[in-house]
C-alpha cells in the first residue's frame, strides 16, 4: 500500500486517513482503487467494531481529479474503457457503504463533489465548524452519480437534494446540520477526536449487535437504491462526452 491511505488501530476502532499530499486530496482512479481495497478488507476484521474515515486538517477532498489521465485522457471511442473508469467511484462508494462495521466520517476544511459522495456512504458524518461543502457536478456537465442520489435524498429529502445538485451553492457546517446532511458540528480541529470518542461508545455494544443493526437499517432504507440508480454511470458518461460538458470541465479546471 502506498502513502495515500493509512490505517491506525485504536482498540476496536480503525482510523483510515486519506492524504494524497497533493491535488487537494482529489479522487484519482488510483486513489479510489486504494480506498476500495481498504474498505473491502474490513469484512475480515472481526476485532474491529467501528471505522473512522478522515482526511487532513485542511481538506477532506476536492472531489474527482479532473486532471487524472486515467479517467479524462481515454480514447473517446473506447466507450467500454470510459464506462469502466466511470464505475470506479461506484465501486468505491459501494465498498464503503457495505463495510459491516459502524462507519464515521470525520471532516475538516473543504469537501466537494465526490468527497461528499464518499462521506454519504458512512453511517455518521462529523464536521468541524470550518467545513465548506459543494456539489459542482452539474456545473462540469455531468449528473450526480456513484449511486449518490438516493443516499442524498434519504438524508435531506427530494426538494433539497435537487437544490444541492443543481444550484451549486456552498454550504457551511451549520446549514448542513440543519438540513440533515451531517450529524454533528464540532470545534475546528476536533472532528477526529470526537469521532474517536463516539466510536468508543459504540464499541461498548457487542460487535455482532452493531453489524446486524447496521445491516437491518441499511437494507430497509436502501431497498430501492440500486433499482433507481443502476444506470447512473451511463447517464454520467453520456452527458460527460458532450461538447458542453467538455467546455464546462475546462472552465472549472481553470478556476484558481
Protein described:
This protein is an alpha/beta fold and 256 residues long. The chain is 46% helix and 16% strand. It contains 12 helices and 10 strands. It has helices at 29-41, 69-72, 79-97, 114-119, 149-156, 158-166, 173-178, 191-202, 207-221, 225-229, 232-240, 243-253; strands at residues 5-10, 13-18, 50-54, 59-61, 102-107, 110-112, 124-128, 132-134, 171-172, 184-186. The longest helix has 19 residues, at 79-97. The mean pLDDT is 92.
What's the short story on this structure?
The chain is of the alpha/beta class and 256 residues long. It has helices at residues 29-41, 69-72, 79-97, 114-119, 149-156, 158-166, 173-178, 191-202, 207-221, 225-229, 232-240, 243-253; strands at 5-10, 13-18, 50-54, 59-61, 102-107, 110-112, 124-128, 132-134, 171-172, 184-186. It contains twelve helices and ten strands.
Key words describing this protein structure:
six-stranded mixed β-sheet; single chain; globular; alpha/beta; four-stranded mixed β-sheet; 12 helices; 256 residues
Q: Overall 3D geometry?
A: globular
**Whole-number mean pLDDT:** 92
The run of helices and strands is: EEHEEHHEEHEEHHEHEHHHHH
**Beta-strand residue percentage:** 15-25%
CA-CA gap between termini: 32 Å
- What proportion of the residues is helical, as a percent range? 40-55%
Strand line-up across the major sheet: 1-2-3-5-7-10
Largest sheet: 6 strands, mixed
Structural class: alpha/beta
Radius of gyration: 17 Å
Amino acid at each position: 500500500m502506498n502513502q495515500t491511505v493509512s490505517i491506525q488501530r485504536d482498540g476496536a476502532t480503525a482510523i483510515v486517513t486519506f492524504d494524497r499530499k497533493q491535488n487537494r486530496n482529489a479522487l484519482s482512479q488510483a486513489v479510489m482503487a486504494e480506498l476500495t481495497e481498504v474498505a473491502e478488507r474490513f469484512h475480515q476484521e472481526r476485532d474491529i467494531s467501528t471505522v473512522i474515515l478522515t482526511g487532513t486538517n485542511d481538506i477532506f477532498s476536492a472531489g474527482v481529479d479532473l486532471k487524472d489521465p486515467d479517467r479524462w485522457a481515454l480514447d473517446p471511442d473506447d466507450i467500454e474503457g470510459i464506462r469502466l473508469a466511470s464505475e470506479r467511484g461506484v465501486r468505491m462508494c459501494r465498498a464503503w457503504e457495505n463495510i459491516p462495521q459502524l462507519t464515521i466520517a470525520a471532516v475538516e476544511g473543504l469537501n466537494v463533489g465526490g468527497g461528499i459522495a464518499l462521506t454519504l456512504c458512512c453511517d455518521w458524518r462529523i464536521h468541524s465548524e470550518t467545513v465548506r461543502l459543494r456539489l459542482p457536478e452539474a456545473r462540469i456537465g455531468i449528473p450526480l452519480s456513484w449511486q449518490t442520489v438516493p443516499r442524498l435524498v434519504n438524508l435531506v429529502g427530494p426538494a433539497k437534494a435537487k437544490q444541492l445538485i443543481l444550484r451549486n451553492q456552498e454550504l457551511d457546517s451549520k446549514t448542513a446540520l440543519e438540513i440533515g446532511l451531517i450529524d454533528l458540528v464540532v470545534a475546528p480541529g476536533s472532528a477526529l477526536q470526537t469521532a474517536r470518542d463516539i466510536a468508543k461508545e459504540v464499541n461498548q455494544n457487542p460487535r455482532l449487535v452493531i453489524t446486524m443493526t447496521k445491516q437491518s437499517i441499511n437494507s430497509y432504507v436502501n431497498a430501492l437504491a440500486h433499482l433507481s440508480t443502476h444506470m447512473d454511470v451511463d447517464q454520467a458518461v453520456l452527458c460527460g462526452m458532450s461538447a458542453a460538458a467538455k467546455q464546462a470541465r475546462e472552465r472549472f479546471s481553470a478556476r484558481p
